[in-house]
Amino acid sequence: MTIKIDALDAALLAELAADPRAPILELAQRLKIARNTVQARMKRLEASGAVRGYPPSVDLQAIGFAVHAFLGVELDQNKIDGIVEALREFPNVLEVHATTGRSDLLVRIAAQSQQDLLGIIQRVHAIHGVRHTETMLALATPIEYRSLPLVEHLTKTANPT
Q1: Is the Cβ–Cβ distance between 25 and 14 less than 8 Å?
Q2: C-alpha–C-alpha distance, residues 43 and 64, integer Å
Q3: Facing residues of 124 across strands?
Q4: Inter-residue contact 124 to 133 (CB < 8 Å)
């Protein structure tokens, strides 16, 4: 379901991104709108699926997972569902994307060390249907995953002033 996002929605999302545990009354005060408006907007954003939750942002390096890599996986096409299910069982797998190009899947991995990463890659190779992998180490992450700039851009282009 696609919903239209306006400047108030964008401002609310920005506040929630900065402080996911902020009480509704505090959000209303910050945005200078009624408490019921905040509740209604949040309910609409959640019901549409635009907001999927409020998990904490965990610094993986701070808890001992300093090695980050992207694994391009080439596989037997008829085995993709089984491979994705097997990858789901790896706690070190942060996300998996089905892609075009040489690799069929792009897998983001966090490991404690290069030796740990090697073990994870070896376990991926052992999954039935995996043909080939290519590993790219992330040396730094100058831009973390983000969505608010896109939301803000969307609301600015929809409501030019």
Answers
A1: no
A2: 36
A3: none
A4: yes
